[in-house]
Specification:
171 residues; mainly alpha; 2 domains; signal; Protein sleepless
Length: 171
Amino acid sequence: MSSFKFIYALGALWVLQLVSFQTASAVECLECRGDSLIEAIDDVVFKSQCWFKPEHHFLLDFKMAVLNEIYHILENLYDSTNSKSEVKCRHDLEINCPSTTVGHSLMECETNHMKTLARAYRDLELCNGKSNDPINLELVKKAIIAGVVILGQVHSCCGCPDGDCCFLKRE
């Protein structure tokens, strides 16, 4: 009977060690917020599919300016964080939309690059084990939300469940 207790105790210790190892690796980066940045950018990408539909091509320059600002703010956050990161974590991204890209193609190019920047930012945080610039990250997220709100005012119906503008439907 004592060998059974010994094996049981050994098994229990192994399980406890396994659980503590998984818990430690899961909480390595408690202050990392890169996932919330990815969610915010995913929201921009999703809604931009409606904002830039061919039937919504009014105020196109304004919408591109808002999208451009979000892109550049995100790019500045990534560059700042990259420069503050440990050498082993640094990664320079070369992402540019061709100068001949316009309209819907430019929007797709910029939103794809935003997703790349957001994921790269999250990877920097995870590699560093911390957020190197939490204050600027929060400001960037607020700027992203402001851009979504501004463009949501232009196309308030882009939040409709069917993803189409209620007042632009043709009968």
